[in-house]
Amino acid sequence: DTEVTQTPKHLVMGMTNKKSLKCEQHMGHRAMYWYKQKAKKPPELMFVYSYEKLSINESVPSRFSPECPNSSLLNLHLHALQPEDSALYLCASTREDRTTGYTFGSGTRLTVV
Amino acid sequence: ELKVEQNPLFLSMQEGKNYTIYCNYSTTSDRLYWYRQDPGKSLESLFVLLSNGAVKQEGRLMASLDTKARLSTLHITAAVHDLSATYFCAVDGNTPLVFGKGTRLSVIA
Predict the structure, then answer these.
(1) Measuring CA to CA, how many Å separate A89 from each of A77, B17, B18, B77?
(2) Which residues contact A87 (CB under 8 A, 6 or more apart)?
(3) Is any Cβ of chain B less than 8 angstroms from the Cβ of A107?
(4) Which residues lie closer than 8 Å to B69 by C-beta, 6 or more apart?
(5) Peptide bond just before A8 cis, omega within 30 deg
(6) What's the rounded mean pLDDT across residues A3-22?
(7) Would you give the distance in Å from CA A67 to the centre of its chain?
(8) Cα nearest neighbour of B104 on chain A
(9) Which of B17, B65, B76, B101 has the fewest CB atoms in 10 Å of its CB?
């Protein structure tokens, strides 16, 4: 299995809703990442988990809450989002030495209404 | 802070022509990656460059890395319409995978 699987592919949520994005990989990668990409912009790093521990939080608002329940699974919990949080959310994973690069999932297209 | 600059940001090429996209970065790194992104899609890995002088080729695309000059190039040979997409370079530093702004490539007949 050489894929990173993200669900759902599309999500529309209201500003008072709570939802979660899910990311799964079975490549034995021990580092997992959340990126946010706005239209016509490059991806921007949000969070990094290394060996299931949060190692980088790029000053992301608390309405985004990451969770890494095990080495294969990464969640992003969403609560009280704003319309400007609408974006493509990408999950990625790597080997610890990053010599084979980063594998990205297909993304979740999030729309906040 | 690592900064990654790509140029050009927009590129309109005729089919059959050659062109080069440049990627400069600001701090020492020996890990650079090239990705392709089609509209509405995720990132597709093209090349992983891990050392000075690394050169990789796949089809009409060839990428190289000069870590001393902090420069990578993506060379397109005899462009075809299917290569139309946005191309990102990204560099590993203290912050994992910092992206350039991307080059939006359009190949026209």
Answers:
(1) 12, 35, 34, 33
(2) A36, A37, A38, A39, A110
(3) yes
(4) none
(5) yes
(6) 96
(7) 10
(8) A40
(9) B17
B102, B22 in Cβ contact below 8 A?
A: no
Closest among B108, B104, B109, B107 to B38, alpha carbons compared:
B104
Residues paired with residue A99 on neighbouring β-strands, in sequence order? none
Record the tokens describing residue A36, joined without a space.
Answer: 């946010």
Does B96 contact A33 at a Cβ distance shorter than 8 Å?
yes
Residue B19 has pLDDT above 80, yes or no: yes
Question: Which of residues 1 through 30 in chain A touch B, CB cutoff 8 A?
Answer: none
Contacts of B99 in chain A (CB under 8 A): 42-44
What does the pLDDT average to over B15-20? 96
Q: Phi and psi for A83 in degrees, rounded to 5? A: -55, -30
CB contact under 8 A, A48 and B45: no
Q: What digits encode the pLDDT tens for the residues B85-95?
A: 999 999 998 88
Partnered with residue A47 across adjacent β-strands are A34, A57
Query: Could you tell me the two tokens for A4?
Result: 């990173």
At position B70, the amino acid (one-letter code) is: R
Taking CB atoms and an 8 Å cutoff, what residues of chain A touch B90?
Answer: 102
Q: What is the pLDDT of residue B93?
A: 84
